[in-house]
Write a structure and sequence with these properties.
This protein has 13 helices and 21 strands. Helix 10 packs across helix 12. It is elongated, with a radius of gyration of 25 Å. The structure holds flavin-adenine dinucleotide. The site of flavin-adenine dinucleotide has 37 residues, from helix 1, helix 2 and helix 13.
């Protein structure tokens, strides 16, 4: 006989992945005793602020192979996982529970209400209907194995709680006091570094260009990093935008090792080769020799940015194509195709950021999200060493890992 005071499932963390695990489990195994324990004073706090308050729930990418390419850490493990729960399933689940999603031109998917509250209300309503016990200000402090599962001790709660299965969904574990507890259970953790940040750059060439954006560049760590493509935004502090955030994610560890001080190269015209540009400029010299270089921007480089790049090549404002010296021409080509900048630090991207690192992937069985060391203990969401680039991929990893854990726990 099961002890009635024992929970079938204790979910630790009342964020995106914790709620989704509890809700999915309740749907699959109705009537079982579930508790969600949240350290903070409110549930789903990150969902609330996510996507600038709009909650970028997932991404309109429905091919698991393509989808998995958006995860600097975890893409191999997620490829199989996405065959079991991918954005299509997310969209369907939300639709079925009263939240319609829409896709924007760049693939990001939001509730049609453009409000994260819609997602929060949906989750809380479902949890109430499924009679999931929700506990606030209940941070897990200690976890030990006992004969029938786990014994859990929470802050503000003198009574320990028994649970047959435990799902850890506590988000970033950087600086979490729980780390010691988990290490005592022999769980091992990849070191933490920030991901999805903007680059601080102090450079004359962009000094007065805050707010200027470019629709498509390639950015790479100098001298020979892999280029990351997408739009770029010049800010008061340096560079941001999807291409920069992508690079910050893919090179998160290398950049952290350099204390976020590093050189990087921007290709402002990734669709055009240096040779093709050289020919284009030779034609300018031949047919438009009297035209000023600063007045001949190459699309899609914004005019003000072009003026600055052209101006930093040793020519003055009135230099014409005919007057442009060979060294100045070479410098201009260099500035366009591999424009070197030095980052002196990072700035948090307010719309979305995550921590790379967490429970080491090889220590988990990705068919169940169960720990290989500690049967009955599951990990989902950001506390696992998985993270995606910006665009709804991080929530999708939370939904997918939560679904897989819920199915496994319900079947166990
Ligand atoms: C500003 C911002 C905007 C973002 N926007 C997006 C977006 O639009 N789209 C997207 O895909 N991703 C976005 N992300 C990333 C996304 O929020 C995370 O990937 C996602 O929240 C991870 O879900 P999670 O449940 O694993 O962790 P969390 O959502 O962080 O939830 C973990 C919960 O566990 C609780 N907890 C911690 N320790 C304990 C403990 N000991 N006991 C009990 N509870 C504990 C925490 O208080 C927290 O409520 C954003 C992130 C930020 C910071």
């Amino acid at each position: 006989m099961t002890d009635p005071s024992t929970l079938d499932l204790a979910v630790i963390g009342g964020g995106a992945s914790g709620f989704f695990t509890a809700l999915q489990y309740a749907e699959l195994a109705p009537g079982r005793a579930i508790g969600v324990f949240e350290k903070g004073a409110s549930f789903l706090q990150k969902v609330r602020i996510s996507g600038g308050g709009r909650c970028n729930v997932t991404h309109a990418c429905f091919d698991p192979r393509e989808l998995a390419k958006n995860y600097p850490r975890g893409s191999r493990e997620l490829l199989a996982a996405f065959h079991r729960w991918q954005p299509n399933d997310t969209v369907e689940w939300f639709e079925k529970h009263g939240v319609s999603l829409k896709a924007e031109a760049d693939g990001r998917m939001f509730p049609i209400t453009d409000s994260s509250e819609t997602v929060i209300e949906c989750f809380l309503k479902q949890a109430r209907e499924a009679r999931i016990a929700l506990h606030l200000k209940c941070g897990l402090q200690a976890i030990t194995r006992d004969s029938n599962g786990f014994l859990l001790r929470f802050e503000n709660n003198p009574q320990p709680v028994h649970a047959r299965k435990v799902c850890i969904a506590i988000g970033s574990m950087k600086a979490s006091p729980l780390l010691r507890e988990l290490e005592a259970l022999e769980e091992s953790v990849e070191p933490f570094v920030p991901s999805l940040f903007a680059f601080n750059v102090s450079d004359e060439r962009i000094a007065n260009l805050a707010g200027v954006s470019h629709p498509y560049v390639a950015v790479r760590v100098a001298p020979s990093g892999t280029p990351r493509h997408g739009p770029l935004l010049i800010t008061h502090k340096g560079f941001s935008g999807p291409a920069v955030l992508k690079l910050s994610a893919w090179e998160a560890r290398e950049i952290a090792a350099a204390d976020h001080r590093f050189d990087f190269l921007i290709d402002w015209l990734p669709h055009e080769s240096t040779e093709s540009l050289r020919n284009r400029f030779a034609e300018n010299r031949q047919h438009h020799g009297s035209r000023m270089v600063r007045n001949s921007p190459v699309p899609p480089i914004p005019r003000r940015l072009w003026e600055s790049l052209a101006g930093s090549c040793g020519s003055d404002d009135s230099t014409t194509w005919a007057q442009l010296s060979k060294p100045a021409l070479n410098l201009l080509l260099d500035n366009l195709k591999s424009c070197r900048f030095t980052a002196s630090g990072k700035t948090t991207n307010k719309d979305e950021f995550v921590t790379a690192g967490g429970i080491r992937r090889p220590t988990l069985d990705f068919r169940t999200m169960e720990s290989r060391q500690t049967p009955g203990l599951y990990f989902v969401g950001e506390c696992v060493d998985i993270d995606g680039v910006t665009g709804g991929f991080n929530f999708q990893a939370a939904w997918t890992t939560a679904h897989i854990a819920a199915v496994a726990i319900a079947g166990a």
